[in-house]
Structures are given as C-alpha cells and as structure tokens.
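Subject: for your reference before the review

Hello V.,

The reviewers asked for a structural picture of the protein, and I figured it would be easier to keep everything in one thread rather than splitting it across files. Below is the amino acid sequence we used in the manuscript, unchanged from the supplementary table.
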Amino acid sequence: MKPGAEELLDRLRSDHRLACLSNTNRVHWEVVEPWIGRLFDDYFLSFRLGAVKPDVTSFTMVLEALRVPADAVLFFDDSTQNVVAAHSLGIQAATVSSPEEIDHYLRGELIDSRGPNV
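And here is what came back from the structure prediction:
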C-alpha cells in the first residue's frame, strides 16, 4: 500500500462510502484481503465479477451493486484507460498515482502532468 493511503481513506470514511474495484486474482486477494476489507465499505474483484477494468461491464456491475447513479461516484485510478472507461458511463473520474494526488484532487488543486483529467 502506498504511504498515506490508509490515513486518507480513514479521513474520507466519515463522510463517504468507500468502494474498491480491483483487477486481481484469488491468490493475490488472499494476501491483501485483511487490510482491504478493513479500509473499504465495499470491494469488487475482477475474478469474482468475471470482468476486468477497463471493460465497462465491470463498472456497470459495481454501480448496480452499490445502487447509486454514475454521477454520484468519484473514481480514481492510475490507468487513464480505466478512467476513460468509467467516465464513458458518467462516473466522475481522475487519473492519479498517489494518495497525495487524490487529496489534491479533492481539494481542487490537482494539476495532472499526464494530461487532463477525464
């Protein structure tokens, strides 16, 4: 886990529902499950969904499970492809590579040197 991630998630938890969509497999999940399960209210795993990001099916399945409209979701990912796919469904999305970038984005301060946020 990247430094600062746990602290950011703990801070956000008081006002937001936190969910994780991860392209992962069963073996990796067994390693990370103890802390992912503690940090997120909901988590969606590609090996369980049968779909992987950036396939829009994975995002659609998450929206249906969460029972929220796409525009009520803010999605962060380090892959521009995944961000573009989420945005195509109306999800607010940003390409980030660190917890600090997420924090800056939430404060309206993010300047993305890899290109505009989608």
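For the response letter, the relevant points are probably these. Helices lie at 5-13, 26-39, 46-49, 56-66, 80-88, 99-106. The CA atoms of residues 73 and 91 lie 6 Å apart.

Happy to draft the paragraph if you're swamped.

O.
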